[in-house]
Design goal:
Strand content: 15-25%
Radius of gyration: 49 Å
Distance between the termini: 159 Å
Mean pLDDT: 87
Largest sheet: 8 strands, parallel, barrel
Low-confidence stretches: 786-911
Strand order of the largest sheet: 17-18-21-25-26-27-28-29
């Protein structure tokens, strides 16, 4: 054996690798610097020979066999590392050449491990799982899995004949993560993880972070590449993230794709995501659904669980195609303006041996205490919400769907089972929290954490709670001691509603308050009114067959029931088939009974009624923009003897508000059932369930009704309404909004500001126009003048030039003569200057003397003048005083004369 190899090799590690017990195979396999070079060790239990080709060398070299179970080594001299490939030979002459999986650097960093261990690595799905990529210029797939209690983890699959000894994964001692990069394999490769547990057992597990799985009943993971899908919904996503979801219509169509429609020759096959998308989008648009909520998209092994026992939290089910097919589905829905919600199940998971349960032989994802970690009724495991890595797994799953698949919302299943430690359990099957209560404090913190992160990182997405108890503040913000959900399913309303509408009309008055009670607590949460799949299975009957009476009465009952639902505050959800009166209970095994729409007119007309309700919901802001404010008001909630409910839905601006009248008995009111209304005006009937187009007989239609000043229902105005039996009637009107003094002042200020702005704009426009006209005229005149001026100037310039040249010539001659004269004159001037100087000095002395005498005389004169001026002013003042006195005397005399005349006139009048 080459000495450097002998110095490096540790046969204890080699033996554990060969036996399949080594947690850190990278300590021996792959390249390692030794002395002035490096040793490369490779292993394959079936290899009979190995050669290595180092980059830059012309020929391959044989590697030395250092263990008879397929371990080979070679020493490469030189401290510069070079890439290499190894060729492995087997009995029968077969061989393959590839880069060494143990020669690549780790993709997982220390920071990744730290954040994951802290529960805050929100994009952990980018590191754990299977990821096609290129490392050091080599394409392959990188695998990573968390298994902290495993003694060894190996990647197995068709790529190594499912032999766990071939690709033992590199363990990390800082986080319990195992990883390996396998060159030259990509999408479509089937794989699992072979795990050696603490007790020495070997178990096979699918990838918890896998993105694709085999079609059930097979359950291996499949490598999938989620990169580079050509999304076309950028504009849609931008608008979604900038919108206020609470002020938009939300009509949800709950769908199980596998049974919405079937395909194939016998109509029993699943339809691919791409093929079903156009049909579903067209139906949603035609009907008026704004959202589609999909049941059972996360991978699950058992059809009968409807997708609520999940084994693939990061994978769309393969029943309907590959992951990119599902991307296409979502993209197509967005292209048609339809939002996509997924059912998501962070409450529990199944005990299937290949999945999450006892993942590395120990309870990693579930709580180790069975009283906290199992649902006895459901036969499932409960997630351990006290464990950071589990929290990270679940939050990562939520963000994964929103990020990678552009999902618009997650409907969180079974939230009540998460919140209560004793949910579905008997005494002795659960443990109290540290305060002695039954609240699952860890689950509460998880939900707050989840909703805070989704809102922060994906502001346009929403998380909805399917929560069936009276837990407070489900939709309040976490900082306000809430759970932070966007919406909550109103299960209480659903139960009361179904109990009432299923009752014979004769006895409905006895439970009249079932239909009004929800408004007593409506404003405590943001609710969605639901009629979900759970209500049409397991002997509960279809919605149509829940209704009492003969068949025609069932349709009438269902129409008024739906009318009441859509008039009630809250967003809406209907399960597929309910909108056309499916007669059979729902089954995941067969398609809906679509033939009813063509063969039975009553079903088509019911479908048309629901369509009108949905479009009304989308059209009128009164039905969605004020759901959780003051947009609802009862007119009469207490007419139990007639089983009639009347109420108002007010729009934000008062325009196109609505009045609903729902009659839940087969009694009609042709002469006019009086309804108190908010104000005077016209009330226009926009919907009547007794119209022939919806299955009625066209009797008791109202048209437009004028409100009269007749007090009714504690209101000043009222209208007479024709009320058909078992019917819903809807009127449109304009609501006079009573503003507070503050609102009036604000409105007046806005109006004044707008008026001023308009006036200024108009004035500015006129001024600008006038100035423009003046400027244009001036410009024209100026242009003409300028042209004329330029011509004159040019002419003058020419003449001036000639004159200047002539003057210049004359001046030149004169200058010569002047120079001579100047020289002679200078001498004479000097003499004259001297004489003038002496004369000036003499005059100055004389002037100074005279000035002194004059100043004295002037002062005396000024004093005399001042006295004279003062005397004059006094004389004028006396004269003014005398004149004023005379004027006053004259006025008094005049006044006396007038009074005398007035007295005389009065005396005459008295007589």
């Amino acid at each position: 054996m080459e000495k450097h190899i002998a110095e490096f090799v540790n046969y204890d590690i080699i033996n554990r690798i060969v036996a399949g017990y080594e947690k850190f195979p990278q300590n021996m396999l792959g390249p390692h610097f030794v002395g002035d070079g490096y040793v490369i060790v490779a292993f394959h239990p079936s290899a009979t020979r190995m050669t290595i080709h180092v980059e830059g060398d012309l020929e391959a070299k044989d590697m030395e066999r250092i263990h008879d179970q397929g371990v080979y080594a070679i020493y490469i001299k030189g401290k510069t590392y070079h890439k290499y490939k190894i060729t492995k030979y087997f009995d029968g002459g077969s061989h393959f050449t590839s880069e060494d999986p143990y020669s690549f650097e780790s993709v997982i960093t220390a920071d990744d491990c730290y954040m994951f261990g802290s529960g805050v690595h929100y994009e952990i799905y980018e590191k754990l799982g299977a990821h096609p990529m290129a490392l050091d210029g080599v394409f392959g797939t990188y695998f990573a899995v968390w298994a902290p209690n495993a003694k060894r983890v190996s990647l197995v699959g068709d790529l190594n004949m499912w032999d766990g000894r071939v690709y033992p994964m590199r363990g990390r001692d800082d986080m319990g993560i195992f990883e390996i990069f396998i060159p030259h394999i990509g999408p479509g490769e089937i794989y699992k993880y072979e795990i050696l547990t603490r007790d020495g057992s070997l178990i096979l597990k699918s990838d918890p972070y896998g993105n694709y799985f085999q079609m059930r009943p097979e359950n291996a993971s499949v490598v999938a590449d989620l990169r580079d899908y050509p999304w076309t919904d950028a504009k849609y996503m931008k608008e979604r993230n900038e919108s206020d979801i609470y002020k938009l219509p939300m009509n949800i169509y709950e769908v199980h794709l596998g049974s919405w429609k079937k395909g194939g020759e016998n109509q029993t096959d699943f339809i691919n995501y791409r093929e079903i998308a156009p049909d579903l989008a067209d139906y949603c648009k035609y009907m008026g659904y704004t959202h589609v909520e999909l049941i059972g998209i996360s991978e699950h092994p058992f059809d009968g669980s409807w997708g609520y026992q999940v084994t693939g939290y990061y994978a769309p089910t393969s029943r309907y195609g590959e992951p990119k097919d599902f991307m296409y589905f979502v993209d197509y829905m967005h292209k048609n303006g339809i939002k996509v919600i997924l059912d998501w199940v962070p409450a529990h998971f199944p005990k299937d041996a290949f999945a999450l349960g006892r993942f590395d032989g120990m309870p990693e994802y579930e709580h180790p205490d069975t009283r906290l970690g199992e649902h006895p009724d459901w036969g499932t495991y409960i997630f351990n919400y006290s464990k950071s890595e589990v929290i990270n797994f679940l939050i990562g799953s939520a963000l994964f769907w929103i990020d990678k698949f552009h999902i618009d919302g997650l409907r969180t299943d079974a939230v009540a089972s998460m919140l209560y430690l004793d949910y579905g359990k008997q005494d002795g099957q659960w443990v109290r929290n540290k305060y002695g209560g039954n609240e699952n404090l860890d689950a509460v913190e998880f939900l707050k954490h989840l909703n805070s992160i989704v809102e922060r990182r994906q502001p346009g997405a929403m998380v909805i709670a399917e929560e069936s108890t009276a837990w407070p503040n489900v939709t309040a913000r976490p900082e306000d001691n809430g759970l932070g959900f966007a919406y909550k399913w109103n299960m209480g309303w659903m139960n009361d509603f179904l109990e009432y509408v299923s009752k014979d009309p004769l006895f409905r008055k006895g439970i009249h308050n079932k239909m009004t009670f929800a408004m007593a607590y409506h404003h405590s949460e943001r609710y969605i009114l639901v009629l979900s799949h759970d209500e049409v299975v397991h002997g509960k009957c279809s919605m149509l067959y829940k209704m009492p009476g003969e068949m025609h009465e069932k349709f009438m009952n269902l129409r008024v029931a739906y009318g009441f639902m859509f008039g009630h505050p809250g967003k809406k959800l209907l399960f597929m088939g309910q909108d056309f009166g499916q007669t059979r209970e729902w089954s995941e095994e067969r398609s809906l009974d679509w033939y009813l729409l063509d063969q039975e007119p009553a079903h088509r007309k019911l479908n048309d009624w629901v369509r009108e309700l949905l479009h009304m919901e989308n059209k009128y802001p009164a039905l969605y923009a004020t759901d959780y404010t003051d947009g609802f008001e009862w007119i009469n909630a207490d007419d139990r003897d007639k089983s009639i409910y009347t109420w108002i839905r007010k729009s934000p601006d008062g325009k196109k508000s609505l009045v609903f009248v729902c009659n839940f008995t087969p009694v009609s009111y042709d002469s006019g059932y009086r309804v108190g209304v908010p104000n005077a005006g016209t009330y226009k009937e926009i919907l009547n369930s007794n119209a022939e187009e919806f299955g009625g007989n066209n009797e008791f239609l109202n048209g437009s009704v004028k409100a009269t000043e007749q007090e009714w229902d504690r209101r000043q105005y009222s209208i007479p309404v024709k009320v058909p039996p078992l019917s819903c009637v809807v009127f449109e009107y304009n609501h006079k909004i009573e503003l507070t003094p503050e609102q009036k002042a604000e409105a007046a200020a806005k109006k004044a500001a707008k008026k001023t702005a308009t006036k200024k704009a108009t004035t500015a426009k006129k001024s600008t126009t006038k100035k423009a006209a003046t400027t244009k005229k001036a410009a024209s005149t100026t242009a003409k003048k300028t042209t004329a001026t330029k011509a004159t100037t040019a002419k003058k310039a020419t003449t001036a030039k000639k004159e200047t040249e002539a003057k210049a010539s004359t001046t030149k001659k004169a200058a010569s003569t002047t120079a001579k004269k100047t020289t002679a004159a200078k001498a004479t001037t000097a003499k004259k200057a001297t004489a003038a100087k002496k004369e000036t000095e003499a005059k100055a002395a004389t002037t100074k003397k005279v000035a002194s005498t004059t100043a004295k005389k002037t002062t005396a004169a000024k004093a005399t003048t001042a006295k004279a001026t003062t005397a004059k002013k006094e004389t004028e003042a006396k004269a003014a005083t005398t004149k004023k006195a005379a004027s006053t005397t004259a006025k008094k005399a005049t006044t006396a004369t007038k009074k005398a005349a007035a007295t005389k006139s009065t005396d005459k009048s008295d007589k």
